[in-house]
């Protein structure tokens, strides 16, 4: 039933390393890698999802409920429930997360439930998402299985207005002499 070693471990002896090491967290350097190599690897994030900011990811855990407005420029993962508006830089609504209110973020990934208007540059609805409200986005991705009820408005990046020089007044011309009519019969 239980595997016992032939000799008991002594308190000062180190345990045997397991055959498969536990992988490190993505934002922490791996053991044995230099900080420079780790920085170079993290400098090229995977194109599938933007990397979290250097400030880290704030999390509202599944057992928490929040009522009110949340705003900031950081990253937020919601696994609990929020009743109110959310305006952050990057937002992930987890499978157990629920938001009732307006949501605005540069990057928004919905795995849970959102009831309200959604605005963002990049919006992704994963197969477990439930969204009831209008979506305004530059880029929208909806996986098969996601539920969405509402309208989609595609916003475009505002192109910088072309600077047109002010109209220049026409240069002053010297007055032209009047045309003279010469009667050829009188000559």
Please, could you describe this protein's structure?
This protein is mostly beta strands. The protein is built from one helix and 14 strands. The chain has one helix at residues 35-43; strands at residues 57-60, 65-67, 70-71, 75-78, 81-83, 86-93, 98-100, 103-110, 113-115, 118-125, 130-132, 135-142, 147-149, 152-154. Strands 1, 3, 4, 6, 8, 10, 12 and 14 form an eight-stranded parallel sheet that branches. A six-stranded parallel sheet has the order 2-5-7-9-11-13, with no helix packed on it. The radius of gyration is 32 Å and the shape is rod-shaped. Residues 28-54 have low confidence and may be disordered.
Summary, kept brief:
This protein has 187 residues and is mainly β. 5% of the residues lie in helices and 34% in strands.
Question: Tags for this entry?
Answer:
rod-shaped, 187 residues, 14 strands, single chain, 1 helix
Summarize the topology.
Elements (H helix, E strand, L loop, with lengths): L34 H9 L13 E4 L4 E3 L2 E2 L3 E4 L2 E3 L2 E8 L4 E3 L2 E8 L2 E3 L2 E8 L4 E3 L2 E8 L4 E3 L2 E3 L33
Parallel strand pairs: 1-4, 2-5, 3-6, 4-6, 5-7, 6-8, 7-9, 8-10, 9-11, 10-12, 11-13, 12-14
Total number of helical segments? 1
Q: End-to-end distance, in Å?
A: 138 Å
Radius of gyration equals 32 Å
User: What coarse outline follows from CA principal-axis ratios?
Assistant: rod-shaped
């Amino acid at each position: 039933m239980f595997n016992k070693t032939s000799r008991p471990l002594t308190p000062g002896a180190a345990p045997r390393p397991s055959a498969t090491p536990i992988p490190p967290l993505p934002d922490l350097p791996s053991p044995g890698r230099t900080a420079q190599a780790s920085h170079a690897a993290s400098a090229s994030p995977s194109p599938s999802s933007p990397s979290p900011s250097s400030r880290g990811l704030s999390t509202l855990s599944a057992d928490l409920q929040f009522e009110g407005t949340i705003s900031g420029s950081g990253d937020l993962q919601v696994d609990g429930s929020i009743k109110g508006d959310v305006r952050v830089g990057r937002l992930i609504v987890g499978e157990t997360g629920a938001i009732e209110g307006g949501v605005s973020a540069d990057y928004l990934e919905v795995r849970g439930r959102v009831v309200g208007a959604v605005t963002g540059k990049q919006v992704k609805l994963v197969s477990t998402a439930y969204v009831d409200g209008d979506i305004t986005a530059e880029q929208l991705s909806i996986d098969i299985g996601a539920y969405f009820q509402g309208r989609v408005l595609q916003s475009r990046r505002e192109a910088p207005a072309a600077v047109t020089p002010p109209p220049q007044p026409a240069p002053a011309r010297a007055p032209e002499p009047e045309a003279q009519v010469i009667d050829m019969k009188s000559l």
